[in-house]
Write a structure and sequence with these properties.
Blueprint: H1 2-23, E1 29-30, E2 32-34, E3 37-38, E4 43-47, E5 59-62, E6 65-66, E7 68-72, E8 76-80, E9 90-99, E10 102-112, E11 115-119, E12 126-130, E13 138-139, E14 147-152, E15 158-163, E16 170-175, E17 182-183, E18 191-196, E19 202-207, E20 215-216, E21 224-225, E22 230-235, E23 242-243, E24 251-256, E25 262-267, E26 287-292, E27 299-300, E28 308-313, E29 319-324, E30 331-336, E31 343-344, E32 352-357, E33 363-368, E34 375-380, E35 386-388, E36 396-401, E37 408-412, E38 419-423, E39 431-432, E40 440-444
Parallel strand pairs: 1-10, 3-10
Antiparallel strand pairs: 2-4, 4-8, 5-6, 5-9, 7-8, 9-10, 11-12, 11-40, 12-13, 14-15, 15-16, 16-17, 18-19, 19-22, 20-21, 22-23, 24-25, 25-26, 26-27, 28-29, 29-30, 30-31, 32-33, 33-34, 34-35, 36-37, 37-38, 38-39
């Protein structure tokens, strides 16, 4: 009985000790962060107290992911934002300072999807990323070769791009901080125009790897073809490369359906049968086709006697916007995903081109020279209301919506050379983001917009 009593007393004393330790444990410090928001790779200064004079085994984590630390002091730490997903463009994440396995300081950081752009400021074409306000521009590719055509993965952790660093154009991917650059296409011919599937598991691209060289017909209608382009699909690690267009003709500019099951593309295969009369691509008749990602169920969607091209699938999967010359000039059209319900959206004598969708599918942005020079416009998805967004006397080009649809970045030559600007969806608050004597081109915030005009 006595032993039992002592055991009970000892247990009570131990519980009291643990409770008192917990009661008098120092509170977790609220740390200060500068800046309070930014993209992957941003340098963040962390202010507080009691961090320790040296780092030792202490770490800084962003949403549980350990960050690279460049400076550590008892009241100040400098850390780099690690690669984290930004599927919706921005989110609040918890930043912790951890010592001996315990959190001693915590704060909130606004993680943002960075804006990618192409620039020659370093003497050759490189891919840079900057914060959405233009701060912290970083060279991600940093290579003497030409790097371009950047495209965000849907979750914002990886970037596909094209580079000739191996002697020919190849499709590469890299992490959002520029690390881990990997050649995915790995072919001696030219592979370009990478486009991520909405699931992030596949990449479509166009290639001339199956060109057979010049072809001359023995028929009275002499034909010369220099090469053909095909649309391929591969897994996001480069495996499983499959020709889904699979035709002697010119097939290009793939666009994914939102469910990731189908690909729309532009083709000239219906001009003159198997042998095409052409010396240049511009001489060919073009149609819009769609195909399953395994190459099955190929369908001609546009079926017009004039050129139709540059298809872009809507975020809702219900419509495809494209450019058509059936009215004698370049006009914007939409159609249902099965090719029905083709509707003319613009009606001017000027050229209207390069359509793209807002993230919610309610707006279509496009270029038009209807007011004397190339400007950026937007219209409702039914075409009933059109708004001019830019009013510069110089070229304004390549709008790319933020993933959340609350802003648009674009390129302009209004400053004497190509620079990147930002504006609201209404065209207000136009703000210059880059300021360099080099050319800054092709901004990409959400969906890539470096699609050439029709």
């Amino acid at each position: 009985m006595r032993a039992k009593g002592l055991s009970t007393v000892g247990l009570l004393m131990a519980m009291l000790l643990l409770w008192s330790c917990a009661l008098f444990q120092p509170p977790i410090l609220t740390i200060g962060l500068m800046p309070t928001a930014g993209a992957v790779n941003a340098i963040v200064a962390i202010a507080g107290a009691g961090f320790g004079s040296t780092q030792g085994t202490s770490v800084v984590t962003f949403d549980g992911v350990q960050a690279q630390v460049s400076a550590w002091g008892d009241t100040a730490i400098t850390a780099r934002v690690p690669v984290l997903p930004t599927p919706n463009g921005q989110r609040a994440i918890v930043v912790n300072v951890v010592r001996d396995g315990a959190v001693i300081g915590t704060g909130l950081f606004g993680l943002q999807r960075g804006v990618l752009f192409e620039t020659n400021r370093d003497g050759n074409s490189e891919i840079y990323m900057m914060n959405p306000d233009g701060s912290n521009p970083i060279n991600l590719t940093n290579h003497p070769a030409r790097d371009n055509s950047a495209a965000w993965s849907p979750d914002g952790t990886r970037i596909a791009f094209v580079t000739n660093r191996d002697g020919n154009a190849e499709v590469y991917t890299m992490n959002a901080d520029g690390s881990g650059a990997t050649n995915l296409s790995q072919h001696p011919d030219s592979d370009t125009f990478p486009v991520w599937s909405p699931t992030g598991t596949h990449i479509a691209f166009q290639t001339d790897r199956e060109s057979t060289g010049p072809i001359m017909s023995a028929e009275p209608k002499i034909t010369i073809i220099g090469f053909n382009i095909e649309v391929f699909v591969m897994n996001d690690d480069g495996t499983g490369q499959t020709n889904v267009s699979n035709h002697l003709a010119w097939d290009a500019y793939p666009s994914w359906s939102e469910d990731g099951d189908r690909i729309a593309f532009e083709s000239d295969r219906d001009e003159g049968g198997l042998i095409l009369l052409a010396l240049t691509i511009d001489d060919l008749g073009h149609e819009i086709y769609a195909v399953d990602i395994d190459g099955d169920n190929l369908t001609n969607l546009s079926s017009s006697p004039e050129d139709d091209g540059r298809p872009v699938w809507s975020p809702t999967d219900q419509k495809i916007v494209f450019v058509s010359y059936r009215d004698g000039n370049a006009e914007i059209y939409t159609m249902n995903a099965d090719g029905t319900g083709q509707m003319r959206m613009t009606n001017t004598s000027a050229a209207n081109s390069a359509p793209s969708w807002s993230p919610d599918g309610e707006w279509i942005t496009f270029h038009s020279d209807r007011d004397g020079n190339t400007e950026i416009y937007k219209m409702t998805e039914d075409g009933l209301s059109t708004t001019r967004l830019t009013t510069s006397p110089e070229w304004d080009w390549g709008p790319s919506w933020s993933p959340g649809g609350d802003a648009i970045v674009f390129q302009t030559s209004r400053d004497g050379n190509a620079e990147i600007y930002r504006m609201s969806p209404s065209g207000a608050s136009q703000e210059r983001l880059t300021n360099d004597p080099g050319w800054d081109l092709h901004p990409v915030w959400g969906t890539p917009t470096w699609l050439p005009p029709a």
